[in-house]
Amino acid sequence: MRSESVPSGWSALLALQQAAHATLQALAAELAGLDLTASEIKVLANLADGHGRTVSELSAAGGIRPNTLTGVLDRLERRGHITRRRGGRPGDRRSVLIELTSSGRLAAATIRKAIADLERRALGHLPADAIAALRASLQSLADGSP
User: In this predicted structure, what is the pLDDT of residue 1?
Assistant: First the structure.
């Protein structure tokens, strides 16, 4: 069943993909001074709340394949932005917890501020209930339960 309010040929998911691409480009330009890749930015942004994450949690949160994530984490560790600590999950000695260092916290704070500024510029004209509905819809898509 098709909603009559949706124009023929218009795809919300295509528009979402285009918006995500434009957002990542704008964010990369704004954060060029940090000399980080998009994947490194995603990892630091996901760790910015100060809570360590396992590799699998970071993979899921950032949409980065575990094999790709290993290289990203290697680079961030070499630059002194993260540490890896064994025993990320109780009872699983193979699990590794990824945590920010002081330089990682500074970079993550810069990233979070850039994200908040970009979001404010892009969505600041919308009423709060429209932003809440957008967030709920995006979370539903991210959770795989549209």
Answer: 41
Burial class (CB in 10 A: 0-12, 13-18, 19+), 112: middle
Overall pTM surpassing 0.85 (yes/no) = no
**CA angle, 36 then 38 then 40, to 5°:** 55
- CA distances 94 to 55, 84, 90, 146, Å, are 11, 12, 10, 34
Q: CB of 82 within 8 A of CB of 101?
A: yes
Angle formed by the axes of helices 55-62 and 38-47, to 10°? Answer: 120
Tell me the per-residue pLDDT of 12-39, one tens digit each, with 9 for 90 and over. Answer: 889 888 998 899 889 989 999 999 998 9
CA nearest to 80, candidates 55, 50, 105:
105
CB 104 within 8 A of CB 17: no
